[in-house]
Specification:
The chain has helices spanning about 5-30, 40-65, 75-100, 105-115, 115-130, 135-140, 145-150, 155-170, 175-210. With about 220 residues, the protein is an all-alpha fold. The protein has one domain. Helix 6 packs across helix 7 (about 145-150). The radius of gyration is 21 Å and the shape is globular. The site of protoporphyrin IX containing FE (HEM) has 22 residues, from helix 2, helix 3, helix 5 and helix 8.
Length: about 220
């Protein structure tokens, strides 16, 4: 990919990632801009965006593997992941400030009694080490193998995020279903693609052996 195209793509990704927070900031400074329940609006928007970005991040590798023309996508995985953490942190802080009113007792009670809050906290905590080790320095320090192993936490985090969403909606509401299906497909896509690639490599190797075997 040439440099100008990459710059355009990078700008588009930054704008797309900043869009939800931009809307919230704009709404906050506009009369009735956040609707009748600003607290819920902020919490829903940031929670939804976190899960959306985590799901997109999860999809980058399987989609990229579909064609060598999509290799450029990998350049955006870290950015999307860091934005997911950013929105997750705004979401968590909005809960601390707007729902719990900075009361440690309220937060502890919520974590103990409301399982969707417990799951939200667990999800956010799983994202912390991923964000902290997202730098090139951390990759070098940990070594590729250990870094890859640690970053497998993202699979658990996204599953916890989906569960948090299910536990948060009222019974009968199926809004988290599209995320559930997307995450399930993306999680299954990886081992299936790896198995197919291995089979292809094996077939190619045995094909070479047949060609090389004399008369
Ligand atoms: C400390 C961590 C977290 C806390 C305390 C928390 C708390 C909350 C609360 C209070 C709500 C709104 C519930 C309501 O008003 O009915 C909510 C909604 C939501 N949260 Fe979290 N959450 C946390 C982390 C996360 C993370 C990391 C994700 C993403 C993976 C996430 C995704 C969502 C989603 C998708 C919704 C629903 C949004 C919608 O309905 O559009 N949350 N969360």
């Amino acid at each position: 990919m040439n440099r100008p195209t990459l710059i355009i793509l990078k700008t588009a990704v930054w704008i797309a990632c900043l869009w939800p927070i931009g809307l919230l900031v704009y709404g906050a400074f506009t009369p009735n801009g956040l609707g009748p329940d600003p607290t819920a609006r902020i919490e829903f928007s940031t929670g939804y965006t976190t899960l959306m970005l985590l799901t997109i991040g999860l999809g980058i590798t399987p989609v990229r593997r579909l064609s060598p023309h999509l290799n450029w996508m990998i350049k955006f995985r870290r950015l999307v992941g860091l934005f997911a953490f950013f929105y997750g942190t705004v979401h968590m802080l909005a809960y601390v400030a707007l729902y719990a009113g900075f009361s440690v007792q309220t937060m502890l009670d919520d974590i103990a009694k409301r399982k969707f809050i417990t799951m939200g906290v667990a999800t956010w905590l799983l994202l912390v080490p991923l964000a902290l080790t997202s730098t090139n320095w951390a990759i070098r320090k940990l070594g590729g193998k250990r870094w890859n192993l640690l970053h497998k936490l993202v699979y658990i985090a996204v599953i916890c995020g989906v569960i948090h969403y299910w536990w948060q909606v009222k019974p009968g509401v199926i809004l988290p279903l599209p995320f559930t299906i997307a995450v399930a497909i993306l999680l299954l896509a990886r081992p299936i693609q790896t198995a197919l690639l291995k089979r292809k490599a094996k077939a190619a190797a045995s094909g070479r052996q047949v060609v090389q075997r004399p008369g």
